[in-house]
Here is the input.
Amino acid sequence: QSALIQPPSASGTPGQRVTISCSGSSSNIGSNFVYWYQQLPGMAPKLLIHTNTLRPSGVPDRFSASKSATSASLAISGLRSEDEADYYCATWDDSLSKVFGGGTKLTVL
Amino acid sequence: LQLQESGPGLVKPSETMSLTCTVSGGSISSSSKYWGWVRQPPGKGLEWIGSVSYSGSAYLSPSLKSRVTMSVDTSKNQFSLKVSSATAADTAVYYCARAGKEELRSEFDYWGQGTLVTVSS
Here is the structure.
């Protein structure tokens, strides 16, 4: 059981906006920054969002994120076929450990 | 910056698994950033194993710390992972990665391509 809870799957059609949730607790999301990673099939994870809402250089502004209390969410607007991937939220837990969500498999229909 | 994992792809149960991450395009000791290991069992999610500073201070996952050792070799621009008493549950793709900021809690902004380690007799 992951410390951060994500829905196992999400889907949308091209052009649509989809959101992926990430639920934690006061010891992790509630007191630390949240990060999001995208993992394309057969590839290493790629940093998508850091410091709750910031996009690294090169990440399209179709990707956005938010955080509220002990939850966070990732939004993808203008969905494209190449967005089909697994998405993971992550943060630090005050028990001295990095924690990841279980991952959400995004399918573009 | 590029990171590349290396090590045996097959380890026998009860033996020690050893992996090395070679960093190119930058120096491990050029900043106070942390270097970490993350693993992913086949078909499953990501799990943080631990992170190590350029000076060799290691911070390990509580669930693995009794079996894990991490070290840094700045002369070779490498950092390493050892997992003792390997079992089938340690079968996974192992990634090395670099923290984006000079703090342990930071995100990983650069990742290696990953290497599959299978624990089997």
